[in-house]
Amino acid sequence: MDHLIELIPLPYTDAVVALGAAILGITAGVLGAFAVLRGRSLVGDALAHSALPGVAIAFIVTGAKDTGSLLVGAGVAGIVAALLMVGIEQTSRIRPDAAIGVVLSSFFSLGIVLLTYIADLNNASQAGLDTYLFGQAAGLLERDVALMGALSLASLVVVAVLFRPFKVTLFDPSFASSVGLRVRVLEITMTTLIVVAVIVGVRAVGAILMVALLIAPTVAARQLTGRLGRMLVLAGVIGAAVGVSGALVSMRAEVPTGPVIVLVAFGTVLLCLLLAPGRGVLWRAGKLRRDRRRARNEGVLVDLDTAVHAGPPPTERELAQLSGRPRREILRGLRDLHRTGMLERDGDRIFLSGAGAGAAHGVHERRHLWTLWLEHGAELDLPDAREPDPHDLRASLGDEHTERLFALGTWRPPSP
Amino acid sequence: MTVPVALEVRRLTVSYNARPVLWDVDAAFPAAALSAIVGPNGAGKSTLLRAALGLVASDSGQALIQGRPVRSALGRVAYVPQRDAVDWDFPITVREVVEMGRYRQTGWVRRVARSDRMLVEDCLERVGMRPYATRQIGALSGGQRQRVFLARALCQQAPVLVMDEPFAGVDARTEASLLGLLSELRDTEGRSVIVVHHDLATARSAFDWALVLNVRAVACGPVSEALTAATLRRAYGAVTTDAPGEQEDLWTT
Questions:
Q1: What residue spans define the domains of chain A?
Q2: Fold (CATH) for A283-352
Q3: What percent of chain A is modeled with pLDDT above 70?
Q4: Is A37 strand, coil or helix?
Q5: Could you tell me the CA-to-CA distances from A196 to A27, A36, B227 in Å, in that order?
């Protein structure tokens, strides 16, 4: 432990805090994933809130502010809360979200009442118990960090050993029990791991906001990868980064650690939600816009092609009338087509250029192919489970199968 | 001579909240055959499979896989749950899902051996999903998802395959190709396949054996004997319009 702390290029107290924050970030990030993936994020919240009465009762019983015994109290309270939630859910017709809400608020209220009672005792050693509300990384001692490290290591070993059973259970519980896994036991283990994460983090982050550190790293990491193993590692890294930066900032600024960490975590999640390639909001919005624009331009192109074939080159107004599209859409489509050299203008009359005629032909062919696919796709003997892209059937089917599809389209059964 | 039996349930009764979902069901499915379980909504089709595999508790009765109690025969049966029972946004690739079929044999901690990886590739190939092995499962279509599930079951190399509504919401092309694959498993490897199915027409044409279920077992036998107008009327109550020529006598009773 000394060794590790010396390695960090910070003053001693800062180094202890940074190490503690890194440990809690990794633990909460990795273990929180099991709450998020089960769709039970708020169970994490309830477990975190229930740590508070546990800490208070442990203090009343032992009369001392020893981190070890306080955390044991937090752990026991968490397990009791977890059992209560499962119990309420199974013995009554109350839904899980309501059960979580009941347990969370009642345990937290009990914690506040007990903390107030303790404050009235005027016991000199009680000062600072309220840091368990919002968290204070600054007060972490080397002892505390060593304890957190041991807990964290133990739980990470459990995750590593049970990785596959966890993965199967999380993804497909029915299948898991059909191959002989004890799903109930595994689920209890996962809940216990979340309790451990709460114990590791509650001192520094606080009961109220601990849930953010359980959820945020997984949400951010999920945006960046589609594989569970990588996601757990990434969640750990993000958790550590968020924890360390939040803890150090909060020490400098002398504000409670919890809120600062949560704000940093929120920023990270926001960035990932917006920018992640493939899944990010901006990426998807961009794709949607491109798709719509392409559909519009192709539609206008085909309308123009039809009009040109039916009579003299139309004006914009005539084209709008003919196609039944809103005039604004026609204008925008024509503007795009003009820019890409698909059409020519003579006064206010519009012609297709050579390229435009070719493109219109292409669109017609693709639409025809798609119709053929819908009609005869089942007769096509494809070598694998490919699903054709309606916009570009030829590319997704390959030339050979495309020709075959055309052939199927022209073939007619002999009339009896 | 007795026909070898793949799966048998005896006097199985299951209830949810005191309401019986299955009542005193006796049924046997022959080995090396395609069997369909048909019946109206709420007939207990899925529950029958789940109870037979011990996934839901039964009030009474027992289930045998190849003549052995299920608990000691889990390695002999591969279960394919309903597709919508899982979270398809789960961070996992196609290959990883199929690999799950090997875990019971390889052990839950050890590295997946080279031979197991080859088997995974082979199973992906058989369902036509090999080009998609590294895809995230959320990016797949319904038919492709069903193919992945079947590949995972194939990977378990179990003699008995039990599938819950594999063709619900699947396109015609996938249904045809999966049915083809299932008959191939029956013909070349002698595997037994038991499927919860909702389409009486394909049940008649593609399957060998059928159980008509509506809380009680209405009929169980070769499709020609089990799927008659009389049994279907008893199971479905109302008229089933799917069998032309049989409608007449439905109206006259």
A1: 2-276, 283-352, 358-410
A2: Arc Repressor Mutant, subunit A (1.10.10)
A3: 97
A4: helix
A5: 9, 16, 57
User: Comparing C-alpha atoms, which of B175, B180, B177 is closest to residue B165?
Assistant: B175
Q: Which residues of B touch A387 (CB under 8 A)?
A: 141, 143-144
Instruction: Tell me the pairing of strands B60-65 and B68-69.
Output: antiparallel
Q: Most B CBs within 10 Å: which of A41, A384, A397, A401, as the mutation test of the B interface?
A: A384
Comparing alpha-carbon positions, the chain A residue that sits nearest to B111 is A164
pLDDT tens sequence across A235-280 = 999 999 999 999 889 888 888 888 899 999 999 999 999 998 888 8
User: CA A29, CA A22: separation in Å to the nearest integer?
Assistant: 10
CB contact under 8 A, A384 and B77: no
pLDDT in tens, A108-146: 999 999 998 888 876 666 667 888 888 888 888 899 899
Among B47, B49, B65, B79, the strongest candidate for a mutation testing the A interface, having the largest count of A CBs within 10 A, is: B79
Q: Report the amino acid identity of residue A49.
A: H
Residue ranges, chain A, pLDDT below 70: 1, 122-127, 411-416
Question: A interface mutation test: which of B88, B100, B129, B154 has the most A CBs within 10 A?
Answer: B100
Cβ(B200)–Cβ(B228) under 8 Å? no
| ipTM of the complex model | 0.90
Rounded Cα gap, residues A278 and A275, in angstroms: 9
Q: Is the pTM of this model over 0.90?
A: no
From the list B159, B155, B51, the residue with the least C-alpha distance to B104 is B155
CB distance B74–A222 less than 8 Å?
no
**Helical (H) or strand (E) element with B5:** strand B5-16
Buried b (16+ CB within 10 A) or exposed e, A266-298: eebbeebbeebeebbeeeeeeeeeeeeeeebbb
Size of interface A-B (CB pairs under 8 A): 94
Contact A385 B108 (CB under 8 A): no
What domains can be seen in chain B, in order of their start residue? Answer: 5-84+159-252 (3.40.50.300)
**What's the CA gap between B22 and A272, in Å, rounded?**
49
Task: Tell me whether B146 touches chain A (CB under 8 Å).
Answer: no
* H or E segment to which residue B217 belongs: strand B216-222
pLDDT for B27-84, tens place per residue? 999 999 999 999 988 889 999 999 999 899 899 999 999 989 988 888 899 999 998 8
Q: How far apart are CA A99 and CA A164, in angstroms?
A: 30
Q: What is the CATH number of domain A2-276?
A: 1.10.3470.10
- A286 three-state secondary structure: helix
- Which of A168, A177, A231 is the closest to B103 by Cβ? A168
Cβ contact, residue pair B55, A178, below 8 Å: yes
Closest CA of chain A from B46, distance in Å: 12
Phi then psi for residue A277, to 5 deg, are -65, 135
Each residue of B87-144: pLDDT tens digit?
Answer: 899 999 999 999 999 999 888 888 888 999 999 999 999 999 999 999 999 989 889 9
Which residues in A lie closer than 8 A to residue B147 (C-beta atoms)?
A: 385
Residue type for position B140: L
- Residue B246 is predicted with a pLDDT of 46
Contacts of B50 in chain A (CB under 8 A): 174
